[in-house]
Amino acid sequence: MSMQDTYEPQTIEAAAQQFWNARGAYTVKEDAGRPKFYCLSMLPYPSGALHMGHVRNYTIGDVISRYQRMTGRNVLQPMGWDAFGLPAENAAIKNNTAPAQWTYANIEHMREQFKALGYAIDWSREFATCRPEYYVHEQRLFTRLFKQGLVYRKNSVVNWDPVDQTVLANEQVVDGRGWRSGALVEKREIPQWFLKITAYADELLRELDHLPGWPESVKTMQRNWIGRSEGLEIDFVVASPLPSGEERARGATGEGSTHDTVTVFTTRPDTLFGVSFISIAAEHPLALKAARSNPALAAFWQNSSTVACPKPNWRPRKSAAWTPACRPSIRSVAKRFRCGWPTSC
């Protein structure tokens, strides 16, 4: 028998895949006598077509799954679709079609592309996050977290994509633009739901030391993400209204004025006596308040902003510094954690 000079994947692989499918090679059944292994790659967004980034990501997961299967484990590698939210709705509007129709048509097409790649996926367990049988569990989990006091709501400055009309994580902002829409990202303060990850920060840090086989670089990254530090919270009471003139003079003496407070966290309270001025971020509420009462400062804000925007949502790119009459007071010994995704702290 002679060997073919060329490899024809459409012919050879299609026959092999048909053989696997007919025998349910990747359909997982319960088997108490075999150790289990679960391999779930990040769910793809049903954008309409696979690209080489998909191929790279899911090939890595497939190699891991096949290796574990060869060692005798009962391997489950499922597939699902991250299909819920405003990006799907906006894409449907752009394509002049209903969101459900657009989403499910993309899923159908991308499913066939995945199957053509020959991945060892159990398609009998396929799901989509936009289906009620999936998100009912998310709603149940959220409700339980809320009842336990582990979910709360407060205002927060976020990365806002004006095209997708959604909040972006820092990792989804590339060179100041939304990773999907390409729009210039804005800073906005809006109400957000938070998960109280800080309640478990100490436990998470302790357990990092007991993870077998984890690269030290990954554990260091996790420690930095949690960002535990100990220090003091110090209240600087500043004159109000800000920043200058007769109002400031009265504020300096505390006569007939109210006072704003800037709370600062520091791990070096011994440097407190060297404080000579306070610098705040442009999006700080006191900066906006000061600009409203001072035309010169308001003009500075407007000129320093690279994107024109009306009051009160100025987005200046610089910070402000001044030396108001202030008296620091050490409020409490505090532990601070810096958390990343999801927006929670």
Automatic annotation (TrEMBL):
GO MF, one example? ATP binding
Provide the E.C. number(s) assigned to this enzyme: 6.1.1.4
Q: Name one Pfam family in it.
A: tRNA-synt_1
* InterPro entries with a match to the protein in the record: aa-tRNA-synth_I_CS, aa-tRNA-synth_Ia, Leu-tRNA-ligase, Rossmann-like_a/b/a_fold, Val/Leu/Ile-tRNA-synth_edit
Keywords from the named record: Aminoacyl-tRNA synthetase, ATP-binding, Ligase, Nucleotide-binding, Protein biosynthesis
Which part of the chain is the Aminoacyl-tRNA synthetase class Ia domain?
Answer: 17-227
According to UniProt, the name of this protein is: leucine--tRNA ligase
Q: Which organism is it from?
A: mine drainage metagenome
